[in-house]
What does this fold into?
Amino acid sequence: MTDITPEQTGSNRSRSSTELVRQSLARRNRKQKVLQGFGIAAIFFALSMLVILVGSLISTGYPAFTQTHVELEVFVDPEEVDTENLSRGNYDDMIAASLGAYFPDVDMSSRIASREVTQVLSSGAQLKLRDRVLADPSLIGETITIKVPASDNFDQLNKGLIKRDTPEENRRLNDAAIANFDTLDAAGVISAPLNTTLITSADSRFPELAGLKGALVGSFWALLVCFVISFPLGIGAAIYLEEFAPKNRLSDIIEININNLAAVPSVVFGLLALAVFLNWFGMPRSAPIVGGLTLALMTLPTIIIATRAALKAVPPSIREAALGVGASKQQVVFHHVLPLAMPGILTGTIIGMAQALGETAPLLLIGMNAFITSAPSGPFDSATALPTQIFIWADSPERGFVSRTSAAILVLLTFLIFMNAIAIYLRSRFERKW
Amino acid sequence: MTFTKLSVSALAIAAVSATAAAARDEIRVVGSSTVFPYSQAAAEQFGNVSDFPAPIVESTGTGGGMQIFCGGIGEAHADITGASRAMKTSEYELCAGNGVTDITEVQIGSDGLSIAVSRDSAFEWDLTKTQVYLALAAEVPVDGAMVANPYMKWSDIDASLPDADILAYGPPPTSGTRDAFVELAIVEGCMEIPMIEAMGGDWAEDNCARLRSDGPFIEAGENDNLIVQRLQSDANAVGIFGYSFLFENSDTLKAVDIEGVTPSFDTIESGEYGISRPLFFYVKNAHRGVIPGLQEFVEEYTSEESMGPGGYLAERGMVPLGDSKRTEEREEAANAVNMPAK
It folds into this structure.
């Protein structure tokens, strides 16, 4: 714009540009309004999706937080218990006998007739009685009060999920079974306390006996292994790359690869784990140690990237001051830079761990979706994890698992929210601004 | 630094538990997703009544289970695999190649495959296998030549069927249920057409077995619950899955009769209902006496309480075998009778 004539740069032109601005003002304001409108609509859409998701989970999941129980007075008949081998007693019959007290018309000695009545109870009822007697053999010969879970169909009936007005031939319980349940209900022995089984038991094929303990412990071990491996390795790699590595083509390639690795789909890590850890190293299937190693591979790039960002955020003046008073480079990093970067590193790590906790695909490939009825006692025992347990339950035909699946998702979400809350707390509490 | 302490102690815990877990002390069962609930039931029962830990059961699909099972002898390989069809020759060869030669084949019962619709559907569905084939196969004979399936509505196939779009949800090719459905319904239905019958069985298997991919047949994944949900939202859609799923959901779904026969435990056992298949499990005999409790678990799995009429497998939807067949299978299982080489 070198050859502009003086007239054009004079007052004449400045007036016209004010004019132009004034003319376009309404249009620009409108554009801004529209943009804001889109923004609000996007937020509203996202929030309503969240409300729908959480709302549907809660509405299907809340029945699983209570479980229908039947309170029974059971006479532990010494004749039915094998004193040599307490676990082999005939606890089934004792339960049936005590239930028979409410049904004087039913001949409880006949297997077929008594089944009509005992189907109200979970098949775990006799095991519960057995465990009581095993824990305290002095109960033999006594009459004890015991609360046993009702079987899934009756639990569903009590919660109104099996509707009484459905025609009998389409209903999962016939009229006689419902009448039996009502007799017990009228006797006041039916209650629906908090479903502690959901947390204290491992998996079972009976919904009323199934719980998340195995999955929780399995997830704990897998995350511990994941943390122990990915945290020191990730920080080590980040410190070297950020503080010591020469800036050349090789370190550029490494950096690009790490960033790409963070975007690799998790199922790829699962296939890698299947090929390397299981087939080559011969590590056990379904074990949290393998799960943890796989998740560590996935979490490493996240931690490296977060750590490098945190290290970069420490101002160079800190490093220069430390070097100035004679600290070695290693002392600078470990005495000054790393402690100052720690809140950022921990935040990144926790978010990485939260991702690992919710990861399903790689665990399916290494067999952590097995049916296991006991909680693992270490990282080498077979176990499931929370997301794979949800996967198993979602695939089970029994009706009781529908609500339990949602309940398990709610438990998983609670853990994720808790972990993210810790990350936010650490960031706001310890972060320093320069 | 606290994190150093934390990791050191965690490593110590891991090291201690590593020594404890040196040997596998629980049985491992893999295999078919159809047999999975039955293995689950037997495993949980076994864990409760015996002093051995409950076996670990994993659902890998029949083919996937065979791959793991035939991987070799030793702790790293599964002891039992469930299958919704008999072991194929290629799988037996894979096993033999890896040293797994002593295998007992046990039939536990049978499974009826059902075609189901929502209870909201007003029509009384009754299809022949040929109609099923004409609705779902990729290529069908029209005027003496095999052409891409032209039928889009049920009424195009037979005027007595409803004037509704053909829409079927079924299992993916990896599933044993799909194999069985293709074999028992599609190929058999195809063979009933005179023109195909004249071509012979092998020709039929090669040319009838492909399911259409132009929309009316939708692969719904291994999750049968998902199919159930979709059927509930569309009254004219049909779903294909194991009879136990229909039985569990009989309040919202009803069966499509096949050649006039409604699937039920009785009609499946008697073979009257056309689409049913045998269920098996395979035991690695070299592991008996090595993996604790394997022999006892096989005995529990084949006990009358388990696979008999009214047993806990029947409660979950399996159709039990007849009396003499059951006794025979039980004895073979207990005595580790090897299956003949294929």
About this structure: Residues 138 and 213 of chain B are 7 Å apart (CA to CA). The first helix of chain B runs from residue 2 to 20. Chain B touches chain A at residues 3, 7, 10-11, 13-14, 16-18, 20-21, 24, 26, 28, 36-37, 39-41, 43-44, 47-48, 53-54, 56-60, 76, 119, 222-225, 244-245, 248-251, 316-317 (CB under 8 Å).
